[in-house]
TrEMBL record:
Listed Pfam families: Sigma70_r2
Lineage: Bacteria, Pseudomonadati, Bacteroidota, Bacteroidia, Bacteroidales
UniProt domain RNA polymerase sigma-70 region: residue ranges: 2-49
Coiled-coil stretches noted in the UniProt entry, renumbered to this chain: none
Signal peptide start-end: none
SUPFAM superfamilies, per database record: Sigma2 domain of RNA polymerase sigma factors (SSF88946)
Example GO molecular function: DNA-binding transcription factor activity
InterPro entries in the record: RNA_pol_sigma70_r2, RNA_pol_sigma_r2
Protein name per UniProt: RNA polymerase sigma-70 factor, ECF subfamily
Gene Ontology biological-process annotations: DNA-templated transcription initiation
Length: 64
């Protein structure tokens, strides 16, 4: 999923690592989460989208 959003293998790998660290740091809330795999995908997607938007914003700023 991260690669489909970013189109960059290295960036996608970093995003997945960041997502897993975030999920792991919130492990005390896992009992509340109904579908942990879906939650992991959601976290990964959100980080990938934020990362992509930050890069696009930076590129837009630099081109102005």
């Amino acid at each position: 999923m991260a690669f489909r959003i970013t189109g960059n293998k290295e960036q996608a790998e970093q995003i997945v690592q960041d997502a897993m660290l975030k999920v792991w740091s919130q492990r005390s809330t896992w009992m509340i989460i109904d579908d942990l795999p879906a939650y992991c995908l959601m976290v990964t997607r959100n980080i990938a989208l934020k990362s992509t938007m930050a890069i696009l914003s930076k590129c837009s700023f630099l081109s102005d």
